[in-house]
Amino acid sequence: MFVIDLRSPDPIFMQIVDQTKRAISKGYLVEGDRMPSIRQMAKDLAVNQSTITRAYRELENEGIITTVAGRGTFISLDQEKINIKKEDMKERLKAILQEAIFYKLTKEEIIKMYEELEGKNETKSQ
Amino acid sequence: MFVIDLRSPDPIFMQIVDQTKRAISKGYLVEGDRMPSIRQMAKDLAVNQSTITRAYRELENEGIITTVAGRGTFISLDQEKINIKKEDMKERLKAILQEAIFYKLTKEEIIKMYEELEGKNETKSQ
Amino acid sequence: MFVIDLRSPDPIFMQIVDQTKRAISKGYLVEGDRMPSIRQMAKDLAVNQSTITRAYRELENEGIITTVAGRGTFISLDQEKINIKKEDMKERLKAILQEAIFYKLTKEEIIKMYEELEGKNETKSQ
Amino acid sequence: MFVIDLRSPDPIFMQIVDQTKRAISKGYLVEGDRMPSIRQMAKDLAVNQSTITRAYRELENEGIITTVAGRGTFISLDQEKINIKKEDMKERLKAILQEAIFYKLTKEEIIKMYEELEGKNETKSQ
DNA sequence: GTGGTCTAGACCACG
DNA sequence: GTGGTCTAGACCACG
What tens digit of pLDDT does each residue of D70-123 get? Predict the structure, then answer.
């Protein structure tokens, strides 16, 4: 389910965060689902355990998971925290839309990109 | 014309790059215009000369300016280089649109953001 | 593998760039190979780290390496970027051939030089 | 006869040197011909007098002109000095041929470039 | 240990 | 006054 790209400029922990969000968008992961243990995921992805710890800490801060000591880590969406991060994302989106305008990318092209990404996420709407 | 935010997570040199692109989008800077000298901008923004040098070098690499040693730095758009960076930007845009979908930001909201940013750039089309 | 000449009119960072290209021509470095770390090369060549950083950034801009923060720097050829630089090189070659004609250097002499340089690179074709 | 490009990365004085050599290759200028006065050329090209002075000093060092005080500046080829510079040029040619090999420019392409440049110089062989 | 950013300051070439 | 190169050194993020 998770695939990391070591050559990517994005830090590994952030790739895990983003893929978790994507899995939720797609409906692959839903509220209450159990995440793999840190140890397990570190083994599966062949990365350092502290990297997974960092990713889970970030997901917890962003209000996407909660960790119950001795029980494990679960998808649990905290709408308040999520809304804070949503504002964050909007700022970053604005910055890149500004760039998109410089590069003369049209509204239509952006919409098409959005719909294609959404299409890939279709499973969630069924 | 250029304003930097030291508290921003974006590196200073990149803020200058982005603001230069924005100034071009807005029509404030056009092909052939002279950029402030490195020393002048360093003084105005109260940052180190090498930081401005880094920004100008990046702008040159991206095909937006050319610099002539001893004479100054000028807006000069190299479409081939710009197209390479456009592809880069599209990748980054895709990643953030993916995130936007997670945060349930609608197409309409994105279009509105685009148009507002474009609106700010209206001066160029008059 | 890398040797710099402090008395050369060519900047140090450019000597590193040229020697990297030469190592690739020779087959000493191939796609995917890891470059020495910035700190290591700085130590080996007894030059400042920022000089190596500058060289690596140039190589990245020219589409010859990619650098992954925290992981290292790797040979990775980006043909599109390389082609842009190839055009650049052809312009510089034309300028010097023009000079060569002034100095009455013959086609035969130039071919001989080419073949000798190519010969030094023979290892790659075996 | 002389045209300078202010946007060129090549220093102006060097453009004048190179164009003088080219004019000789072409047969436009021959031994004994009088060069324009420094003052005149500065006026014609709309550049600083000291820039022309620098160009003429370089041409004199390279054994291509001699200045006779109060008389003017004349084409006068000093073969010994020219041969020294020829070695210099050969070194620079080697460096760029090395690069050409990296960019997979073939012998045939180089010869073609040489012949085209020579063709433009045809007047000299008549 | 890896690369990224930035400062402060020096010296050079061109015009 | 313009940009180009380089050093010495600091602090940061990722793993």
Answer: 899 999 999 999 999 999 999 999 999 999 999 999 999 999 999 999 886 555
**Is nucleic acid strand F under 7 Å from C16's C-beta?**
no
- Asked if C105 and D98 come within 8 Å (Cβ–Cβ), the reply is no
Please give the Cα distance from C20 to C28 (Å, whole number). 9
Residue with tokens 């060097």: D14
A50 CA to chain B: closest CA distance, Å? 23
Judged by C1' against the alpha carbon of B8, the nearest nucleotide is E5
Amino acid identity at A12: I
Quick check: pTM over 0.90? yes
Question: Is B16 in contact with B2 (CB distance < 8 Å)?
Answer: yes
Amino acid at D65: I
Q: Is C30 exposed, middle or buried (0-12, 13-18, 19+ CB in 10 A)?
A: exposed
* Residues B34-77: tens digit of each pLDDT: 999 999 999 999 999 999 999 999 999 999 999 998 899 999 99
Q: Where are the alpha helices (DSSP H) in D27-78?
A: 38-45, 49-61
First to last CA, chain C: 20
